[in-house]
């Protein structure tokens, strides 16, 4: 965590080091940065600002300012802290709410796990680490994958559906919870719930009510002590994320030039731009962290 000297706000500083090692990795970093700047949703981590880069000749790393999140769901799950049924409902509601937004932008997260679900002290949750796009594989790849999956399943011993086992996963496993879980985990995608359908399940009604009653920023308190609710509890993206630019970049120099111009064009125009001071003691401490520890 760092302090933004412009307003004293505590924020997270994410470092993207060694950006230009390979063409593939540099395009992946560019994609992640564009996504962070594209996202406009309460339950998806986004960029608040980008630090001003050095001259193109010395441009090797990127620093992005994001909202500071105190923990993640993995740390909470393994901690002694008790998670109530209300916690489960409000967390699951926010996960699905963020996923609906991503899917509407034609983005698939593909790595949903507790460690990638950031949580604040007020239980607001944000999805992070959305770096890869999934396109349609060619017919040969799909044919191979399907045959391999079928062969693998046929070689395994046949097991009947173990629905009762789901009730043993948690003391909070009610009939509604198990019903939603089984529909979300259906093997056949035609029978599996979409994220929009999952959000409409009765199990999440209490989570939706709690989130929009006291946690969200899309609804606002009124002067008479009530609350003005938004007309759309689960908003979608205004347009799809554009990834056509990737096909235009065929060399490292092209990526470096375009990425540098992109950052310069996205610096906050109404604020003094920030840059890294490598001579400060704080920077030396920050730079000594491992790469996977530089997100907060």
From TrEMBL:
Coiled-coil stretches noted in the UniProt entry, renumbered to this chain = none
The UniProt entry, under Pfam families, shows: Pkinase
Q: Which keywords does UniProt give here?
A: ATP-binding, Kinase, Nucleotide-binding, Serine/threonine-protein kinase, Transferase
The record, for InterPro entries, names: Kinase-like_dom_sf (IPR011009), MAP_kinase_CS (IPR003527), MAPK (IPR050117), Prot_kinase_dom (IPR000719), Ser/Thr_kinase_AS (IPR008271)
This entry's Gene Ontology molecular function terms read: ATP binding; MAP kinase activity
Q: Which reaction does it catalyse?
A: L-seryl-[protein] + ATP = O-phospho-L-seryl-[protein] + ADP + H(+); L-threonyl-[protein] + ATP = O-phospho-L-threonyl-[protein] + ADP + H(+)
Per UniProt, residues of the Protein kinase domain are: 1-204
Q: Which domain of life is it from?
A: Eukaryota
Q: What is this protein called?
A: Protein kinase domain-containing protein
Query: Which organism does this sequence originate in?
Result: Cherax quadricarinatus (Australian red claw crayfish)
Read off the lineage from the record. Answer: Eukaryota, Metazoa, Ecdysozoa, Arthropoda, Crustacea
């Amino acid at each position: 965590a760092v302090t933004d000297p412009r307003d004293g706000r505590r924020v997270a500083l994410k470092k993207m080091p060694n950006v230009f090692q390979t063409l593939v990795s540099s395009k992946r970093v560019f994609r992640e940065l564009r996504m962070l700047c594209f996202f406009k949703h309460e339950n998806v981590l986004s960029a608040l600002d980008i630090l001003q880069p050095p001259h193109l000749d010395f441009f090797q790393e990127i620093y992005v300012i994001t909202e500071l999140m105190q923990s993640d769901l993995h740390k909470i799950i393994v901690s002694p802290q008790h998670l109530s049924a209300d916690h489960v409902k409000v967390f699951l509601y926010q996960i699905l709410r963020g996923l609906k937004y991503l899917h509407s932008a034609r983005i698939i997260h593909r790595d949903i796990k507790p460690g990638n679900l950031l949580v604040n002290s007020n239980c607001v949750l944000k999805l992070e680490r959305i770096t890869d796009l999934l396109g349609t594989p060619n017919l040969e790849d799909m044919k191979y994958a399907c045959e391999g999956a079928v062969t693998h399943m046929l070689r395994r011993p046949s097991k009947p559906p173990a629905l009762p086992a789901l009730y043993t996963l948690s003391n909070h496993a009610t009939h509604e919870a198990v019903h939603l879980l089984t529909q979300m985990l259906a093997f056949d995608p035609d029978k599996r719930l979409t994220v929009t359908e999952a959000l409409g399940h009765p199990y999440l009604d209490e989570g939706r009510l709690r989130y929009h009653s006291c946690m969200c920023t899309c609804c606002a308190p009124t002067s008479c002590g009530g609350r003005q609710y938004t007309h759309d509890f689960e908003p979608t993206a205004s347009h799809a994320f554009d990834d056509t630019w990737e096909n235009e970049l065929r060399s490292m120099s092209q990526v470096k030039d375009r990425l540098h111009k992109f950052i310069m064009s996205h610096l906050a125009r109404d604020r003094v731009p920030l840059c890294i001071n490598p001579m400060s003691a704080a920077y030396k401490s920050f730079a000594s962290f491992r790469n996977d520890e530089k997100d907060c």
